[in-house]
Structures are given as C-alpha cells and as structure tokens.
Amino acid sequence: MKSYLITPEGKKTYIKPHKDKKWTVEELQFLLDGYIEPVPSETDTEDNQPYVLVNEDGYNLRLPVNSVGSLMAMTVGKSIARVLVGNVLFIDKKEFS
After folding, report:
1. Which ranges of the chain have pLDDT less than 70?
2. Which residue in 28, 37, 50, 83 is a FRET match for 63, CA 20 to 30 A apart?
3. How many degrees, rounded to 5, is the angle at CA 29 between CA 21 and CA 52?
C-alpha cells in the first residue's frame, strides 16, 4: 500500500517518507500541521490496514471538514464518531515504527 494525504478539498497526493525510509513523528506533524492523532480502528490487528492520522486539535482549530478523507477512513475499517477535519494521512504500517 502506498501512503497518501487527502486534503479537505478532496485532493489525494501519494507521499513518501524523507529519503524513502520510515516516517518520523516530525514529518507527520508537518503534514498535519500539528500533533498527530490516530483514528481508531476495528481492524488494526491486520497488517494490510493503514494507519489513519489526523491533527489532534483539528476541531478546536476549526479546520475544514474532510468528507473524502472521512469516507475513505470508513472504507478501510476505521470507526469514526464524527466527520474528520483537516488533512487526513493514510500511512502504510511498514513505513512507520
């Protein structure tokens, strides 16, 4: 699986960690413009399911709704109680430790 970022406008961009190594927390925070928060999953034990990450303070910062990211998160087994906001990252588990 390739890692990708979905903006609130619905743009999907494939992304790679710096120098094609594993993601650092700093890189992820840069892409989310803040602290990272994982989106809970019903299937996180499966290796083929990506990590889905959002800005931890997205609601307090009044980041824009990300409808496309929310729908895509649900299709990979994530349990979301409300719509996701701001950038949404889908990170391959093999690229993050």
Report:
1. 20, 42-47, 97
2. 50
3. 75
